[in-house]
Amino acid sequence: MATATTFDHAAPPQAGPRAFIARLRHGDEIAHVITLVFAAAILLITSMLVYELWVNSVLSRTKFGWHFLWTSVWDPVFDNFGSLPFIYGTLVTAVVSLVIAVPLGLAAAIFLADLAPRKFSDPVSFLIDLLAAVPSVIYGLLGVFVVVPLMRTVIGPVLKSTLGFLPIFRGPNYGVGFLTAGIVLAIMVVPFIISVSREVLLTVPREQREAALALGATRWESTWQVVVPWARTGILGSVFLALARALGETMAVTMVIGNDPKISASLLAPGYTIAAVIANEFTEATGNLYLSALIELGLVLFLMTFILNGLARILIVATERGGGRPS
Amino acid sequence: MRKALTLALFLLGLTATAGAQSSVLLNAAGATFPYPIYSKWFDVYHMQHPTIQINYQSIGSGGGIRQLQAGTVDFGASDAPMTDDQLGQTKVKVLHFPTVLGAVVPTYNVAGVSGDLNFTQKALTGIYLGTITKWNDPEITGANKGVNLPNTDIVVVHRSDGSGTSFIFTDFLSKASDAWKSKVGASASVNWPVGLGGKGNEGVTGLVKQTPGAIGYIELIYAVQNNIPYGKVQNASGKFVKADLAGVTAAAAGAAKSIPDDFRVSITNAPGATAYPISSFTWLLIPTQIPDAAKRDAIKGFLKWMLTDGQNYNEGLSYAKLPKLVVDKEQKAIALIQ
Predict the structure, then answer these.
(1) Would you tell me the crossing angle of helices B324-333 and B245-256 to the nearest 10 degrees?
(2) Residue A223 and residue B127: Cα distance in Å, rounded?
(3) B57 φ, ψ (degrees, to nearest 5)
(4) Edge-to-edge strands of the sheet including B232-234?
(5) Which residues of A fall within a CB distance of 8 Å from B163?
(6) How far does the CA of residue B8 sit from the closest CA of chain A (Å)?
């Protein structure tokens, strides 16, 4: 209601139906109702989604209980299901992709927003927005035909010979695995980070930068110490958008991760993610318990996304309190 | 305005009733493996009988069975026969009609090996159980005299998506090895002891081609159409057989004598010197009670055509024909649909 009256400068608040009609004429009430309905629809869709996942996973939830979350066997023949390797694979690939994509995307966004001439940055930004719209199966093919062979013949052997003392780069290297999936995911999410971060960086007021320059900061100092902290909230937002896409990506991941539900310390080992196993096994899942377990996996993925988004909110609130943007 | 609306509604009603009288639309859903031949059949049958249209969605065997149970389709299709449990959960009685035959072949990528490799049943089960890990294991070299097999690791590749191909392959492994049967079993998706998963025939083929020392299994049709080399497999008589359409039909003929009345039978490891051991029927799942007479006649008519003229389209699409014994038996079973 507050918004409905705030913008109502023309007519001061009056009582009675005549006032309502007057406001209707301005469109405020209509806009209010319509936007409310759409906002409520989002809530409704989300709660219906959770409700459906919850109801349809009842067989699996009653049979396995909390064990579902920390057992590692996935056996459709003997109806024994645990989700830990899938949760692990989903988290590991998402983290690997962010470790690669965040520095890359942030650096590119800073360059495009702050340092590059407009003649260069505009067409490049357009291309980046195009990249964000490429279907994931295309990235999957890129992974299969380029990243996987490169991983097996170049990247993997180099990592093993230089950093092989670390447990994360040990064991056989098939070309497919957590690291390959992480790299392909990074390529997929980097456009989101660049695109959103650049927009946010462009909204930083000119005066902020000019003030820093006037105080004797170099161009880089003004960018890194004034502009980027100002835009921190928006940049974090872009990172979490990227994380959400990485968690839910199906097609490109299943093509390059090896689809083996095992928990391995090595990033070179094959693994599996929640989204990938649902896509792979849902169509041929015949048993009721089997189907229910797959739906429960969907519930787990939903909760993971929910929790990570919650953490993101907390992080944003915490950084805002710590300074930066004086809002 | 209102007049126009009434007229439009009237016309709509008219065309709808006219459509219902003159044509029959059948909805079906299920297995993806026979989809190319099914869409060919339904297309040709529609051209010969313009009033009958069959709409088939290849959503997978599991989905086909579920939709049949829910009553949202007129008939289903599956690469694996329905289990007793599944039949118990279905309100209507369901008949199985074998339509075509498919086979699964081993493909591999071993340095220095160009000819066909022979795989004993013990070798295949050992490889997929993870007990045979090198290409120069005696179980493999023993069946391939004169082939210089390297001392490299075997990289096992299987399907990651649930599929009839995996069902046929694991069904064969279950018959070939008690250890496999008790430890892993047969299903569209299993808990694989070892190996990488590739999505679809193309995913498995891609992984095998790219990975030195890899072995995988793919559909015969896919191997033939894409010129992918594949190995010979030892059959129940101890002979090494290279899969081809005749060998698959021979396997079905070998099993046909003991085929049960409900056609729910696995023909992997079938007897017969020329029988290829990793092959299977794929089935249409038809309810015994079809209250709508027009639909019932349409389905019965199609089944009769499929068993006779329809079979001539099989080999062009690399599916093996049904043996005569099975065709005769199925034609009798059509009468059970009421």
Answers:
(1) 60
(2) 59
(3) -110, 120
(4) B118-119, B232-234, B240-241
(5) 284
(6) 32
Compute the count of residue pairs across chains A and B with CB atoms less than 8 Å apart: 95
Reported as a single tens digit per residue, the pLDDT across B37-96 is 999 999 999 999 999 999 999 888 888 888 899 889 999 999 889 988 888 888 889 999
Contacts of B264 (CB under 8 A, 6+ apart): B81, B82, B96
Report the amino acid identity of residue B306.
M
| Nearest residue to A177 via CA among A190, A159, A203, A197 | A159
Beta strands B94-109; A80-81: pairing state? unpaired
**Amino acid symbol at B146:** G
pLDDT band at B2 (very low <50, low <70, confident <90, very high): low
Q: pTM score, two decimals?
A: 0.84
pLDDT digits (tens, 9 = 90+) for A243-290: 989 999 999 999 999 999 999 999 999 999 999 999 999 888 878 899
| Dihedral pair phi/psi, residue B285, rounded to 5° | -110, 110
Residue B275, phi-psi category: left (phi > 0), alpha (psi -120 to 50), beta (remainder):
beta
Question: For residue B87, how many other CB atoms are within 10 A of its CB?
Answer: 18
φ, ψ (nearest 5 deg) of residue A245: -65, -40
CA distance B170 to A120: 57
Identify the closest residue of chain A to B165 by CA–CA distance: A284
- Please, what is the angle between helix A178-202 and helix A232-248, to 10°? 150
Which of chain B's residues have a Cβ under 8 Å away from the Cβ of A73? 191
Structure tokens at B83: 């289990």
CB burial of A51-69 (b: ≥16 within 10 Å; e: otherwise) equals eebeebbebbbebbeeebe
Q: Which residue of A has its CA nearest to B186?
A: A77
Query: Three-state SS for B110?
Result: coil
Q: Annotate B291-307 with DSSP letters as a single string.
A: --HHHHHHHHHHHHHHH
Please report, as a single letter, which amino acid is at residue A24.
L
CA nearest neighbour of A136 among A276, A240, A295: A276
Instruction: Indicate yes or no: CB of A286 within 8 angstroms of CB of B190.
Output: no
Chain length of chain B: 338
C-alpha–C-alpha distance, residues A112 and A122, integer Å: 8
A254 touches chain B (CB under 8 A): yes
Q: Which residues contact B236 (CB under 8 A, 6 or more apart)?
A: B269, B270, B271, B272, B275, B277
**Interface confidence (ipTM) of the complex:** 0.80
A169, B98, B254, B276 from B322: Cα distances, Å: 52, 8, 12, 14
Q: Which amino acid is at A76?
A: P
CB < 8 Å to A76, chain B: 162, 187-191
pLDDT per residue as tens, chain A (327 positions) = 444 444 444 445 556 677 767 666 677 778 888 999 999 999 999 999 999 999 999 999 999 999 999 999 999 988 999 999 999 999 999 999 999 999 999 999 999 988 888 889 889 989 998 988 899 899 999 999 999 999 999 999 999 889 988 888 988 889 999 999 999 999 999 999 999 999 999 999 988 888 998 999 888 888 888 898 889 888 988 998 899 899 999 999 999 999 999 999 999 999 999 999 999 998 888 788 999 999 999 999 999 998 988 887 887 787 766 554 444
Q: Does the beta carbon of A262 lie under 8 angstroms from any beta carbon of chain B?
A: no
